[in-house]
Design brief:
single chain, 5% helix, 401 residues, mainly beta
């Protein structure tokens, strides 16, 4: 197969909303799911704007990150966004005694999503719907201009040597999971749409994001276990990974969600940077899709500056008996990247196309993507043609067909 045709929005389907304080600077990186009718597409998108009321140190205004809701009745050609209020907002507390939340089992726990909720992914596991977000304890400043993660940190963190204090001083991302009530979300009952489950990554260990699950358990090391994809900033922090220090894709297996941020989870490196367009990092993009026969479609992104920025490609995994799945096909080409004028860098210098959600209608894979960290577009491709194209490459990315 010589060529794959992917169609892209000729213009953004959602843009920042001038005058909307929580979404006037960026809208990007949407998660998608289908309505029960199999045609209506629902979206959660990442958004931000300056928040001077929470400027703690006078260094820069914080930019807390929110999630907004939108839907499409025409298979992603257009979306109607609710800019009246965020669907999910960070608490934005600076007093440690107020930085707690009640989880799904009634426990009062540290709210790691206190500062921002970034890059939503929506997926099902064993019949329940979940949302994961990359979160920070405190809102960053204008991070696209410089490293402004620490501009609004409270003084108490510098005397706190606990795991929370260590995470707070770096203000790294911790991935948090919510149980998602889809009906509450789509009817505008946002207050009852999200139930805090737990953190999935250890903020005292390393920054970790691009985290989500396969929809079923896998038999690994003799036990039926949940299986998670994640992208640690420094994979060498995990047992068995000694020589990989660039952000890479890992798998993790554990029996319970609460085990993944602990030593109870078993971690294995799945893929690291190989090709020039992914030199700086790679991470999984939208949740894996079951292709049948023990095979799974995994979308992923690579980053390299200054030539490519963030671009997207695909791989196929195959289940293994009593072990983690392995890569059997990996495309060495970047298949999704910024081309159109509206997708190219404007305010923010890094070229960026970033997919975080996809649905399948008939044979069409419909993907939502953030462009230039400012706007949202939709890409469409025949799923069967995409799979056939991926199968032209072996597990190392060598084109064999």
């Amino acid at each position: 197969m010589e060529k794959l045709t992917i169609e892209f929005s000729s213009e953004p389907v959602i843009e920042p909303k001038r005058g909307c304080d929580w979404a006037d600077t960026m809208v990007l990186n949407p998660a998608l799911f289908l309505d029960d009718d199999g045609r209506t597409i629902h979206m959660l998108f990442r958004a931000t704007g300056p928040w001077p009321k929470k400027n703690l140190k006078g260094i820069s205004d914080p930019y807390p990150i929110f999630l907004g809701y939108a839907k499409s009745d025409d298979l992603g050609e257009s979306f109607q966004a609710d800019f009246s209020r965020p669907a999910l907002a960070p608490a934005l507390e600076y007093d440690k005694d107020k930085m707690f939340i009640v989880n799904t089992v009634g426990e009062k726990v540290m709210n790691f999503a206190n500062g921002c909720v970034e890059d939503p992914r929506i997926f099902e596991v064993e019949g329940k719907t979940y949302l994961t977000v990359a979160s920070r304890l405190f809102p960053p400043g204008p991070y696209w201009e410089r490293d402004a993660r620490r501009d609004n940190l409270p003084d108490w963190i510098f005397d706190d040597d606990s795991a929370v204090g260590q995470c707070a001083r770096r203000n790294d991302t911790v991935t948090v999971m919510y149980e998602l009530n889809k009906n509450a979300l789509i009817t505008g009952n946002y207050e009852n749409a999200f139930a805090y489950v737990c953190p999935l990554t250890d903020g005292a260990l390393t920054d970790n994001r691009d985290v989500f699950f396969f929809p079923k358990r896998f038999k690994i090391q003799g036990k039926e276990q949940l299986l998670m994809l994640h992208r640690p900033d420094n994979p060498s922090k995990f047992e068995g990974v000694c020589d990989v220090t660039t952000p890479s894709i890992m798998l993790a297996a554990a029996e319970n969600f609460t085990d993944f941020a602990t030593s109870k989870a078993t971690n294995k490196l799945l893929a690291t940077s190989v090709f020039d367009w992914e030199e700086e990092r790679i991470g999984a993009s939208f949740p894996p899709m079951d292709l049948g026969d023990g095979r799974w479609l995994v979308s992923y992104h690579g980053k390299q500056l200054p030539d490519y920025g963030y671009t997207q490609s695909f791989m196929i995994l195959k289940e293994q008996e009593n072990d983690f799945p392995k890569i059997i096909h990996r495309v060495s080409e970047r298949l999704i990247f910024a081309k159109q004028k509206w997708e190219l860098p404007d305010k923010f210098p890094c070229p960026c196309i970033f997919t975080t959600g996809a649905v399948v209608v008939d044979d069409t894979l419909i993907m939502g993507y953030g462009a230039a960290d400012q706007k949202i577009g939709i890409a469409k491709v025949s799923l069967s043609e995409l799979i056939a194209y991926i199968e032209c490459f072996d597990e190392k990315g060598v084109k064999v067909k």
